[in-house]
Amino acid sequence: MVARPEPRPGIMQIEAYVPGKSAASGVAKIHKLSSNETPLGPSPKAIEAIRSFEHLELYPDGSATRLREAIAAKYGLDPARILCGSGSDELLSLITSTYVGAGDEGIFSEHGFLVYRIAILANGGVPVVANETNYRADVDAMLAKVTPRTKIVFLANPNNPTGTYLPFDEVKRLHAGLPSHVVLVLDAAYAEYVRRNDYEAGLELVATADNVVMTRTFSKIYGLANIRLGWMVGPSHIVDAVNRVRGPFNVNGPAMAAGIAAIQDDAHVANAVVHNEKWLAWLTREIEALGLEVTPSVGNFLLIHFPKDAGRTAKDADAFLTERGLILRRVDAYGLSGALRLTIGSEEANRLVVAALRDFLKGV
Ligand SMILES: Cc1ncc(COP(=O)(O)O)c(C=O)c1O
């Protein structure tokens, strides 16, 4: 047989990431609650920045200077320690390819974000999974997985899809237990939603430790998922190394313009926080009152657990809700086949979900 090109070891073990569904056939109105997008949309100022963007024929500023300055001003950071990416997904991949090679190990928790596994395998590394306790990352379990081959540890805080939060003293304990050559990635995609917010302390750890980076995104509270924009902050030597791996024009001009406008629109973000806080609490209460278990969440989404009885499972609920145009996220790929993840939506969507779940459980 003629030899054909073979992907590197690890590549064919990757289960390609499957995004949340966005369609349901034969339904008049769809409520997409499957990808943790904001029901408020982006800041009108960000939309205007894209509309008025000129000179698409010119390459963008490859070092994203103005955007980094805007982020730095907002969070009191040094712009030289910030790197922007085409979504934080790109940065997670770039960080991994910078530090993980064949046979190196990368640790993440049981129900951790799927991109970590993909990034580790894509670089020939070995994904190492640490058990969680009550759907929350367990620092001792993570530390117990460290070996001389460990190169990277990922912690999403809050985690997706569980919505659980690890208080900062626990994050610090994780960091203190890691060898200093291991990169600790704090994935803070949902940071702006967290009310019990000790991200200041997280940023302080990033500022003072030599092996900690934080990734952030414009996809969630800023409502700019479609234009792919994220950033990371870390020690200069990590930023310098990751910057060498990055494509020269990985962030486009309209995205940077929108990001700058969005990060300066404090009122829009504040509205989104208020909306989320109100409806997160309401949905948790109402869904629990229906007799379903809900994992307490600090993000803009909820993990709802369904019974195992035939006709009442998460899969059945997904089919039932989809018929009503309510699209939630199956989370089987996260080892959570008994649950669905619900993004906090508009008032209309949230009320429809509760009504539909009530009918589903009644067997209507
Ligand atoms: C925990 C977590 N990290 C990172 C991302 C990636 O976001 P983006 O690439 O849109 O910045 C997501 C998106 O769902 C996420 O849930």
N- and C-termini, Cα separation: 58 Å
CATH class of the largest domain: Alpha Beta
Low-confidence stretches: none
Please state the structural category.
Answer: alpha/beta
- Total domain units: 2
Q: What is the CA-based Rg, rounded?
A: 21 Å
* Biggest sheet architecture: 7 strands, mixed
Number of strands: 15
Give the bound compounds.
Answer: pyridoxal-5'-phosphate
Order of strands across the widest beta sheet?
2-10-9-8-7-3-4
Order of helices and strands: EHHEHEHEEEHEHEHEEHHHEEHEEEH
Question: Going by CATH, what is the homologous superfamily of the largest domain?
Answer: Type I PLP-dependent aspartate aminotransferase-like (Major domain)
Rounded average pLDDT: 96
GO molecular function, one term: pyridoxal phosphate binding
EC number: 2.6.1.9
Catalytic activity: L-histidinol phosphate + 2-oxoglutarate = 3-(imidazol-4-yl)-2-oxopropyl phosphate + L-glutamate
Family: Belongs to the class-II pyridoxal-phosphate-dependent aminotransferase family. Histidinol-phosphate aminotransferase subfamily.
